[in-house]
Design goal:
The protein has 479 residues and is α/β, with parallel strands linked by helices. It is 45% helix and 14% strand. It contains 18 helices and 16 strands. The longest helix is centred in the N-terminal third of the chain and has 31 residues, at 108-138.
């Protein structure tokens, strides 16, 4: 570390002056004090970065000084020098907030390392306070961003929110599409009315019509009572349809009619019900391609895409990582009664340099895990998930021969990603940017094709990593 201001405190004048001389030789600016009262007065004037104090002093000992410094300089680390007979007192001082203690006679190498680490901690705590001030300036919203890309998104949200226009939100899985939808609702004139979010991919195709529009008693087997749908529940407010592309094509016409006329009929019902709902939507599918493949209605697409918001992935807004990390640290510390206050600079560099295929959702999970594992004040590299504790994400490649169809390339990429993620389908779907339902459908199709061909293994390209028949190949990165 560079030069710092250090207050050296010892009732033995010669010892104190010798200590000051050594600290000055290390490049630090040093002030001395010979009792607790003198030290407290000089701390207020000198504003030290570190206090280095004897623990056993007459009248006002080191503990007295520590307790009073907490009020004057709460962020200043205090390191105690102690004899072997006062180690129990030194341990008590640690419990009360001292940074560390060093047993006399002094090991100068250990003292130097201890001071450097104390200064490092102070700098980290200063950064934590800066991040907390920025969080406070951003307000109580869950939409936390200071990067240029996200500030532009927020500006567009503020413009579209007061209108009645339908908004389509795009972005990779985990970028916070529902958070954006909720923020648009909270900025709109409908803020005091319901906000209802529904994930269309999580609902079986046979039940999605009932979920959207409701049903009457007896409408189908198991419908033992009347149940309103999400459109009725969101009346006067906002409905967020996540994974919009998963709605069956035969149901899209009915959805379009409800959007255009503001009226619906429950499944099995005979009367129409008026609904006033603003619809926000999101999907990981390419809806223009879905329209070409006749799996999505073009008129519904234009009805829901009046205004578009695109969320950049976290790897394109790395300057937001520190403030997001601090937000999650503060959140999970409160949830778990931990004393974690921030992240060590080395660990923060790892977090900033990681590619975040799962975006903010993955970052949130990583910080929650780190807070659970951390028993001190700062999250270190060791508390991070193993796959990101190195310099960056581990990268793997597999090679495919030229001449394959796009379907075959997609198949091998999906199977390779599944293997890379330990057969975790939820994680694989997140990394690929598709819904779990889409991934399951593709895997079931591959299995059916294998059965039809009598292939027991991974298909025609099971030998991943081998060159093609002419030795020419393409490499695809699987993260």
């Amino acid at each position: 570390m560079g030069s710092a201001r250090i207050l050296a405190v010892d009732d033995e004048r010669e010892t104190c002056e010798a200590l000051a001389e050594m600290l000055s030789a290390w490049g630090h600016k040093v002030e001395t004090a010979f009792d607790g009262h003198d030290a407290l007065r000089k701390a207020g004037e000198f504003r030290p970065d570190v206090v280095l104090s004897d623990l056993a002093m007459p009248e006002t000992d080191g503990l007295w000084l520590l307790r009073n410094l907490r009020e004057e300089l709460p962020d200043c680390p205090v390191v105690f020098l102690t004899g072997r007979g006062t180690i129990d007192t030194a341990v008590e001082a640690i419990r009360e907030g001292a940074y560390d203690f060093i047993v006399k006679p002094l090991d100068t190498a250990r003292l130097k390392v201890c001071i450097d680490r104390a200064l490092e901690k102070k700098e980290t705590m200063r950064e934590v306070q800066t991040l907390r001030r920025r969080l406070k300036q951003l307000g109580s919203t869950d939409l936390i961003a200071s990067s240029t890309g996200m500030r532009k998104v927020i500006e567009m949200m503020e413009k579209v929110a007061p209108s009645k226009a339908s908004v389509s939100i795009s972005g990779e899985s985990g970028t916070g599409k529902e958070v954006v939808a909720r923020t648009v609702h909270n900025l709109s004139l409908r803020r005091d009315k319901p906000f209802i979010a529904i994930n269309c991919a999580s609902i079986p195709a046979t039940l999605i019509e009932s979920e959207l529009f409701g049903h009457e008693r007896g409408a189908f087997t198991g419908a033992d009572q009347r149940r309103p749908g999400v459109f009725e529940m969101a009346h006067g407010g906002t409905l967020f349809l996540d994974e919009l592309g998963e709605i069956p094509i035969d149901l899209q016409a009915k959805l379009l009619r409800v959007l255009e006329e503001g009226r619906l009929r429950r499944l099995g019902g005979k009367v129409e019900i008026e609904v006033d709902v603003r619809v926000l939507s999101a999907t990981n599918r390419d809806l223009k391609q879905e329209i070409k493949n006749q799996r999505f209605r073009e008129d519904l697409y234009f009805r829901l895409n009046v205004f578009q918001l695109h969320l950049p992935p976290l790897r394109e807004r790395r300057e937001d990582v520190p403030i997001l990390v601090q937000h999650f640290v503060d959140k999970f510390r409160g949830d778990s009664a931990k004393r974690v206050s921030g992240v060590h600079p080395e660990a923060m560099e790892v977090l900033k340099n990681y590619d975040w295929p799962g975006n903010i959702r993955e970052l949130r999970n990583a910080v929650e895990r780190a807070v659970i594992l951390c028993d001190g004040e700062l999250i270190t590299r060791e508390h991070l998930p193993p796959d990101m504790a190195g310099k960056g994400p581990e990268r793997h490649t597999f090679k495919l021969p030229f001449g394959l169809s796009l379907d075959a390339v997609e198949r091998e990429y999906i199977l390779g990603s599944l293997q890379r993620n330990g057969n975790n389908k939820a994680r694989t779907a997140e990394v690929l940017g598709v819904s779990e339902k889409t991934l399951y459908n593709k895997l079931n199709r591959y299995a059916a094709e294998n059965r039809a061909q009598g292939t027991p293994g991974g298909g025609p390209l099971g030998s991943q990593g081998n060159d093609g028949p002419l030795g020419a190949s393409s490499s695809f990165l699987v993260r």
